Amino acid sequence: MSHSARRTHVNNVCFVHLPHALARKYPNAGKELAWQYIFPSKKMSIDPRSGQVGRHHIHERSIQSAVKNAIRKAGVHKHASCHTFRHSFATHLLESGYDIRTVQELLGHANVNTTMIYTHVLNKGGMAVLSPVDR
Length: 135
Fold this sequence. Notes:
Number of helices: 6
Radius of gyration: 22 Å
Helix content: 40-55%
Order of helices and strands: HHEEHHHH
Shape: extended
Structural class: mainly alpha
Strand order of the largest sheet: 1-2
Number of strands: 2
Mean pLDDT: 80
CATH architecture of the largest domain: Orthogonal Bundle
Strand content: 5-15%
Protein backbone atom coordinates (compact mmCIF):
# COMPACT_ATOMS: atom_id res chain seq x y z
CA MET A 1 0.00 0.00 0.00
CA SER A 2 1.48 3.38 -0.94
CA HIS A 3 1.97 6.07 1.67
CA SER A 4 -0.86 8.23 0.27
CA ALA A 5 -3.22 5.25 0.01
CA ARG A 6 -2.41 4.24 3.57
CA ARG A 7 -3.12 7.80 4.77
CA THR A 8 -6.55 7.81 3.08
CA HIS A 9 -7.37 4.40 4.55
CA VAL A 10 -6.22 5.51 8.01
CA ASN A 11 -8.33 8.68 7.95
CA ASN A 12 -11.50 6.75 7.06
CA VAL A 13 -11.02 3.87 9.49
CA CYS A 14 -13.76 2.97 11.98
CA PHE A 15 -12.10 -0.05 13.50
CA VAL A 16 -10.86 -0.76 17.02
CA HIS A 17 -8.51 -3.56 18.00
CA LEU A 18 -10.11 -6.36 20.00
CA PRO A 19 -8.49 -9.16 22.00
CA HIS A 20 -7.52 -11.99 19.67
CA ALA A 21 -10.22 -14.47 20.78
CA LEU A 22 -13.00 -11.88 20.33
CA ALA A 23 -11.65 -10.76 16.96
CA ARG A 24 -11.61 -14.38 15.79
CA LYS A 25 -15.11 -15.16 17.09
CA TYR A 26 -16.67 -11.88 15.89
CA PRO A 27 -14.58 -10.69 12.91
CA ASN A 28 -16.64 -7.53 12.29
CA ALA A 29 -17.18 -6.53 15.92
CA GLY A 30 -14.33 -4.00 15.80
CA LYS A 31 -16.37 -1.98 13.29
CA GLU A 32 -19.58 -1.93 15.34
CA LEU A 33 -20.49 1.19 17.30
CA ALA A 34 -20.84 -0.76 20.55
CA TRP A 35 -17.12 -1.59 20.50
CA GLN A 36 -15.89 1.93 19.67
CA TYR A 37 -13.97 3.75 22.37
CA ILE A 38 -15.45 6.76 24.14
CA PHE A 39 -11.97 8.28 24.21
CA PRO A 40 -10.16 6.99 21.10
CA SER A 41 -6.48 7.61 20.50
CA LYS A 42 -5.68 10.20 17.82
CA LYS A 43 -3.03 7.88 16.41
CA MET A 44 -3.76 4.88 14.26
CA SER A 45 -1.94 1.59 14.57
CA ILE A 46 -1.60 -1.58 12.53
CA ASP A 47 -2.53 -4.87 14.17
CA PRO A 48 0.52 -7.11 13.70
CA ARG A 49 -1.65 -10.27 13.43
CA SER A 50 -4.32 -9.11 11.00
CA GLY A 51 -2.63 -6.15 9.33
CA GLN A 52 -5.80 -4.08 9.92
CA VAL A 53 -5.45 -0.39 10.62
CA GLY A 54 -7.36 0.69 13.71
CA ARG A 55 -7.45 2.64 16.93
CA HIS A 56 -6.75 1.88 20.54
CA HIS A 57 -8.19 3.86 23.41
CA ILE A 58 -6.47 7.02 24.59
CA HIS A 59 -3.82 6.28 27.20
CA GLU A 60 -4.99 6.80 30.77
CA ARG A 61 -2.09 9.19 31.46
CA SER A 62 -3.40 11.50 28.72
CA ILE A 63 -6.80 11.69 30.41
CA GLN A 64 -5.21 12.18 33.84
CA SER A 65 -3.08 15.00 32.45
CA ALA A 66 -6.08 16.68 30.79
CA VAL A 67 -8.10 16.47 34.05
CA LYS A 68 -5.20 17.93 36.06
CA ASN A 69 -4.87 20.80 33.57
CA ALA A 70 -8.63 21.48 33.69
CA ILE A 71 -8.58 21.50 37.50
CA ARG A 72 -5.66 23.93 37.50
CA LYS A 73 -7.31 26.20 34.88
CA ALA A 74 -10.57 26.18 36.85
CA GLY A 75 -8.70 27.47 39.90
CA VAL A 76 -9.62 24.51 42.09
CA HIS A 77 -7.14 24.48 44.97
CA LYS A 78 -8.27 21.23 46.59
CA HIS A 79 -6.68 17.94 45.57
CA ALA A 80 -8.66 16.41 42.71
CA SER A 81 -8.01 13.77 40.05
CA CYS A 82 -9.81 11.24 37.86
CA HIS A 83 -10.37 9.20 41.03
CA THR A 84 -12.38 12.13 42.40
CA PHE A 85 -15.04 11.39 39.74
CA ARG A 86 -15.19 7.76 40.88
CA HIS A 87 -15.49 8.81 44.51
CA SER A 88 -18.23 11.32 43.64
CA PHE A 89 -20.11 8.71 41.61
CA ALA A 90 -20.12 6.26 44.53
CA THR A 91 -21.06 8.94 47.06
CA HIS A 92 -23.96 10.22 44.95
CA LEU A 93 -25.29 6.70 44.46
CA LEU A 94 -25.26 6.09 48.21
CA GLU A 95 -26.83 9.51 48.89
CA SER A 96 -29.58 8.62 46.41
CA GLY A 97 -30.41 5.48 48.38
CA TYR A 98 -28.70 2.79 46.30
CA ASP A 99 -27.74 -0.20 48.39
CA ILE A 100 -24.09 -0.86 49.21
CA ARG A 101 -24.01 -4.15 47.25
CA THR A 102 -25.12 -2.42 44.03
CA VAL A 103 -22.46 0.25 44.49
CA GLN A 104 -19.90 -2.47 45.24
CA GLU A 105 -20.73 -4.21 41.96
CA LEU A 106 -20.66 -1.00 39.92
CA LEU A 107 -17.25 -0.07 41.32
CA GLY A 108 -15.90 -3.58 40.82
CA HIS A 109 -14.86 -4.06 44.43
CA ALA A 110 -14.26 -7.69 45.42
CA ASN A 111 -14.92 -6.93 49.08
CA VAL A 112 -17.82 -4.83 50.38
CA ASN A 113 -15.50 -3.42 53.08
CA THR A 114 -13.70 -1.49 50.35
CA THR A 115 -17.01 0.04 49.26
CA MET A 116 -17.91 0.88 52.86
CA ILE A 117 -15.18 3.56 52.78
CA TYR A 118 -17.58 5.72 50.75
CA THR A 119 -20.23 5.65 53.48
CA HIS A 120 -18.13 7.77 55.86
CA VAL A 121 -19.07 10.96 54.02
CA LEU A 122 -22.80 10.30 54.40
CA ASN A 123 -22.76 10.46 58.23
CA LYS A 124 -26.52 9.88 58.37
CA GLY A 125 -26.69 6.81 60.59
CA GLY A 126 -30.21 5.33 60.60
CA MET A 127 -31.56 8.34 58.69
CA ALA A 128 -30.06 6.93 55.47
CA VAL A 129 -32.69 4.17 55.39
CA LEU A 130 -35.74 5.14 53.37
CA SER A 131 -39.06 3.40 53.57
CA PRO A 132 -40.62 2.47 50.21
CA VAL A 133 -43.76 4.18 51.54
CA ASP A 134 -41.90 7.52 51.70
CA ARG A 135 -41.11 7.45 47.99
